[in-house]
Amino acid sequence: MVIYRLHHATIYEYAEPVLLGTHFMHLVPRARPGQTVKESVLEVSPTPDNRRNEVDHFGNFTTTVSLTNPHKQFVVELSATIDVAQPAPPAPSSTPGFEQIASASVNRADIAEYTLPSALAAPSIELAAYGKASFPAGEPILSGLLNLNQRVFNDMTYKPGVTNTATTAAHALKSRVGVCQDYAHLMIAALRAVGLPARYVSGYLRTSPPAGQIKRRGADQSHAWVSVWIGDYAGWVDFDPTNNLLVSDEHVTLAWGRDFQDVSPLRGIILGGGRHTLRVNVDLDPVLT
Q1: Distance of CA 261 to CAs 118, 128, 137, 248, 257, Å?
Q2: HSE of 58, CA atoms in CB hemisphere, 13 A
Q3: Looking at residue 165, what DSSP letter applies?
Q4: Which end of the chain is less enclosed by CB atoms within 10 A, N or C?
Q5: DSSP code for 97
C-alpha cells in the first residue's frame, strides 16, 4: 500500500475582469477497489456565489460553481490524502478468451455502455483491424490486453501540443502522435471495435518515480489511461498505454467515463476576461509506503 498526498492547482489569469463565470469540474477523487480517499478538500477563489456538489451518471463527483462578481484571477486547488493498494491481476494465461468477455458484456447494462461508440473513441474498420491484431481466436483476455497496451506504446510518439481535447481515436491512429489522452482513446476505440468494454480514466501519476526508475510520461499534470472489464472474477483492470504499464500503485483515479468529454477536469463559460493565461501544477507524492 502507498499513501499519497495530492495537490492540484489550476490558475487562470485574465487581462480584463471576468464579469460572470460558471465552471464545471471533475476534480474530487473517487473511491474504487484498490483506492481509498482519506480526505479531500476542493477550494475555489474567489469564493463562488453558488456551489453545487453532485454525483454524475458514472458515479464521479462533480462540482459546479458560479461567480457574479468581477475578477481577474480564478483559482481551483485540490488537496487530498489517498491510499492506493491495487489488487494483483490474475495470470494472463489463466484469464478467459476475449470472445467470452465480449459475449458476457452485452448482458450487463453497466458494462455494455462501455462497448458503445462515443464522440472521441468511436470504432471504425481501421481501428477494428488494429485491435484484432492483438486478439487472435481464443486469445486470453489479459494476454491480448497487455499486447495491445504495448503496441499502442510502441506505435505512438509522445508529443505535446499537436493534438487537443477534441482529437479522436481515428485521428490518433492515423497520425500516431499525441499525449496520454490520445493513447487512451486509441486503445479504447480499438477494444470497442472487437466488442470489449473499455472506459477512459482521468487521474494522476506519481510525480517522483521510485528509486532507479525513470520519470513517467504524464507526471506533473492530469493523466489519462484505460480500464477494461475482464469478467466478474477480476472486474476492471487498468492499463497505461502512454507508459506501457499495467496500473498498480503509481496512479490515483479521479473519474471515469466513455472518453475525455465525460470527465474533463475543468470547463466553463465566462463573460469578459479578454486574453488569459493558464497554469496547472500537480504534485502526487508518497507520504508512507
Answers
A1: 9, 22, 33, 25, 8
A2: 24
A3: T
A4: C
A5: B
Tens digit of each residue's pLDDT (9 = 90 or more) over 156-168: 999 999 999 999 9
User: Domains of the chain: which residue ranges?
Assistant: 2-84+264-288, 92-262
Q: What's the CA gap between 104 and 185, in Å, rounded?
A: 23
DSSP output for 185-245:
HHHHHHHHHTT--EEEEEEEE-SSPPTT-PPPTTTTSEEEEEEEE--TTT-EEEEETTTTE
219 in Cβ contact with 206 (< 8 Å): yes
The rounded distance, in Å, linking the Cα atoms of 258 and 275 is: 32
Distance CA 166, CA 187 (A): 16
Quote the DSSP letter at residue 72.
Answer: E
d(CA 277, CA 134): 42
Give the Cα-Cα-Cα angle 55, 22, 25 (nearest 5 degrees): 35
Query: How many degrees, rounded to 5, is the angle at CA 132 between CA 126 and CA 137?
Result: 155
d(CA 281, CA 175): 29
Evaluate whether the domain defined by 92-262 bears CATH number 3.10.620.30: yes
- C-alpha cell at position 199: 472506459
Using the structure block, give the residue that is written with the C-alpha cell 492499463. Answer: 239
Residue type, 150: Q
In terms of residues, how long is the chain?
A: 289
Residue 17 contacts residue 71 (beta carbons within 8 Å): yes
How is domain 2-84+264-288 classified at the architecture level of CATH? Sandwich (2.60)
Residue type, 256: W
Q: What is the pLDDT of residues 198-242, one digit of tens each?
A: 999 999 998 666 666 666 665 567 899 999 999 998 999 999 999
